[in-house]
Amino acid sequence: MAQSTVADRSNRDRTYSITELCREFDVTPRTLRFYEQKGLLHPDRRGWTRLFSYRDRARLQLILRGKKVGFSLEEIKEMLDLYNLRDGQLTQLRVSSTKFRERLEALRKQRLELEDAISDLEKTITVVDGMLKEREAAETTAPRRAANGE
After folding, report:
1. Is 75 exposed, middle or buried (0-12, 13-18, 19+ CB in 10 A)?
2. What is the sign, positive or negative, of the torsion defined by CA atoms of 91, 68, 77, 41?
3. Which residue has the higher pLDDT, 147 or 57?
4. C or N terminus of the chain, fewer CB within 10 Å?
5. 13-33 pLDDT, tens per residue?
């Protein structure tokens, strides 16, 4: 048990370069600088070099997950910033749970709308392809009729 605690602390003390985070999360340096500018990440600086903490790495992971499911950066920042309230994360967990459930419902609604749109498009393709076959068939028989003097 003591060994894992020591390992956890050493991981938490570790810093990451912008290059390391870009490689690990497949993002660009510009993306990390943008998140820093928006107050989502808070790297330390040594001259021109940005050093990202274990916390920044964890926040980046959460930012990317949030974006993947459609949260805005403002919503993500709001949820992440609630961590600092020092209430045992109670507020953060409550707010996040509510937002996650709302987002899940919105995604489910979008899925139904997409399924309807796909179904409509499939029906339209069937109709258009049928009309296309009719026109192409008429076009190929018309020159034959003309050649036969019909």
Report:
1. middle
2. positive
3. 57
4. N
5. 899 999 999 999 999 999 999
Tokens, residue 42? 């808070």
Record the tokens describing residue 81, joined without a space: 């910033």
Residue 147 confidence (pLDDT) above 70: no
Contact 76, 66 (CB under 8 A): yes
Burial class of residue 104, CB neighbours in 10 A (0-12, 13-18, 19+) = exposed
C-alpha to C-alpha distance for 71 and 122, rounded to whole angstroms = 30
Tell me the pLDDT tens digit for each residue of 42-54. Answer: 999 999 899 999 9
Q: Please report, rounded to a whole number, the percentage of residues in the chain having pLDDT higher than 90.
A: 73
Residue whose tokens read 């139904």: 112
Task: Kindly report each contact of residues 134-140 with a partner whose C-beta sits within 8 Å and lies 24 or more positions away, as own/partner.
Answer: none
SS3 of 50, please? Answer: strand
Residue in this structure with the two tokens 């985070």, named with its chain if needed: 21
Report the C-alpha gap between 58 and 140 in whole angstroms: 65
